[in-house]
Hints:
By secondary structure, the protein is of the alpha+beta class. It has helices at residues 6-54, 61-68, 93-100, 102-110, 149-199, 214-270, 277-305, 317-334, 354-370, 402-405, 423-433; strands spanning 71-75, 81-84, 117-124, 127-135, 141-147, 313-315, 338-342, 350-352, 377-385, 388-395, 437-443, 447-455. Helix 1 (6-54) runs antiparallel to helix 5 (149-199), helix 6 (214-270) packs antiparallel against helix 7 (277-305) and helix 9 packs antiparallel against helix 11.
Amino acid sequence: MYKFSIQTKITLPFILLFAVIIFAISIVTISLFNRKYDEQFSVETREWLEAIVQTNYIYEPEKVKRAYRAEVVVFGQDGSISSSTFANPTGSLVQLATDLKAHRVQKQLRDGFGDGFILENVTVLSKPYKAIYYLQSDGHLYCLIRPIGKIAEARRQAILLMIGVASSGVFLVICISYFIGRNLSKPISNLVAFTHRVANGNLNIQCELTTQDEIGNLTASFNQMTVELRNSRDELIRVERLAVAGKMATSFAHEIRNPLSSMRMLAQMLLNPSLTEANRHQSLKYILEEIERIDLIVKGLMDFAKPERLVRSQCDLRYVLREIMNLMDANLRHHKISLIENYDSSIGPILLDYDKIKQVIINLLLNAIESQRNNGEIRVSTRKREDRVCICVSDNGKGISPSDLDRVFEPFFTTKLEGTGLGLANSKRIIDQHGGKMRIESILGKGTEVEIEIPVESNTSQE
């Protein structure tokens, strides 16, 4: 389906309407002109013939030719040419008789057709003429022939003039319609462009009021709506920020409450003078462990709230993963978990932050280890998918319930007895910074699979 602009919809009907009217008027005018001129010419020709008959000039063709500047042809009773004023008609008499249709006209006049005269437009020797026929009393057919070449030229000039006038009129209508349509559609086009900018999220602009009509009222209403929408958005953002801040504060307070309670209890124990040195040393050790736990919670929260800039470089993904597996080897062997690796050798160096990706993979492996029983299995593989590299970490552990699966990337959400609930949230943030995607699929009781996609060439922001 064709799409027409508002300006086209406004101007096109006017142009078509006026074009039809102008050309119709031109055609009717030309037709009336031709008809009236032909009637006038025919009446004048008949008057000439009547004057010729009355003055007996009918028997003197040459005088008629000189007086009226017309040609005369006289046909005998048998239809043959008796006399003619045409120059050098010899050899053309048969053609001349044929052009003038002498036999047919002579028969019509003898049968009483017309009132003694017949007028016809004829072409004689390839030239246009107006011919008037008169049947004489002796049976001869008298034909007065007036050239109408000048009439045809005048008619042609009149047609050209009318075509010129009609074309000028249509052009004038097009110009007027264009300016009218432009004045009507320009404010609408500006408003449409403004709505696109608002739809793209720019609520800090106002559409210029260029008219004081209904379109101007619509623009003013839309400006007011934009202001109200901006205020609503700002209020929504403020409320959302307060809600997030409250949720994070609540989660943070909940996370550090247990270590603080333990530290308080241990500190009270240290005040007991009867406490042995060994118990005092053990209590101090526990206090330090709880402080480290609080520090870990605070660091995770800071990483989530204000992530550091990426420091990217060209890295061999297989080398990065093998180094991580070597670091995790002791942990895997301790939990009697087998590791299966399958790396795509066609993947070349890619642009990534080595330390950040290392942090993500280690976090995924730790989650997989914690969800495993002894003699479990973890699979790590890579493959290339068009312009992206996929890293897949899967296990056959206890899995994640469907109700928890939608919340695994929420800050402070965890199903473990210990942990901050920021590991997956920070991991997803890091992958998002790389311009990639992280997806988790899990079946309760069968295992979990985490897939990471990283663009081979990433131009995303590193903030």
